[in-house]
Amino acid sequence: MNSRDLILARVRGAVAGAPDVEVPRAYRGVTGDATGGATPAGGDRLVDLLAERLRDYRAIVHVVPEAEIASVVEEALTRRKIGRLVVPHGLPSAWLEREPRDREPYDTVGDDPELSAADLDGVDGVITGCAVAIAETGTIVLDAGHGQGRRALTLLPDYHLCVVGAGQIVAGVPDAVARLSPERPLTWISGPSATSDIELNRVEGVHGPRTLEVVIAR
């Protein structure tokens, strides 16, 4: 018997005859709604809290009416001098409507066939929607659904522009988990990619985009 078998045998012996314990699964979220839905009364509060937490993470945040998404997106891409932008399948075309201006147009790049790592490293940025956003933690969750694309699209480009609808914002993590499917590939984003060494020197852009810009549509 090796060490692993010995340890497991001792565990089995210790719990032999113990009654079964029912594990609760219907977690109640911060909102008090087990379905994870945001109430209309708390909608503005959740939008403001998400924006505050995202800014704490050094993300660039815009809170605008839904009708202004396209103009804010265009301003953001112009400010960044985006030349080539990855656009995942299913992204609403209305988000990329452009006003006629004296500026160099950017090129949109699709992911069919799939872009290589070198291709993604060579673009200027990516724009996506999201599956859900968590106000309490300032976290945006992607599940590779329509308008989000596969995980690599938001990990390799240096700039990620994400559009979040007010109806996608929930209060806490249990509320988000209630909306998400465990069978989908989930990417949880809390601000730009960053890490620190033992002396707490912060370095951004190591494991993902150096810049995260978020448009929250009320």
Q: What does this 3D model show about the protein?
A:
This protein is α/β, with parallel strands linked by helices. The chain has one domain: NagB/RpiA/CoA transferase-like (Rossmann fold, 3-Layer(aba) Sandwich). Helix content is 25%, strand content 22%. It contains 5 helices and 12 strands. The chain has helices at residues 3-15, 40-56, 69-79, 117-122, 173-179; strands spanning 60-64, 84-86, 107-109, 125-128, 132-134, 139-142, 159-165, 169-170, 187-189, 194-196, 202-204, 211-217. The strands form 3 sheets. Strands 1-12-7-4-2-3 form a 6-stranded parallel beta sheet, sandwiched between helices. The longest helix has 17 residues, at 40-56. The relative contact order is 0.20. This is Lactate utilization protein C. It comes from Microtetraspora glauca. InterPro entries: FTHF_cligase-like_sf (IPR024185), LUD_dom (IPR003741), NagB/RpiA_transferase-like (IPR037171).
Distance between the termini: 62 Å
Give the CATH class. Alpha Beta
Sheet-strand content, in percent, reads 15-25%
CATH topology: Rossmann fold
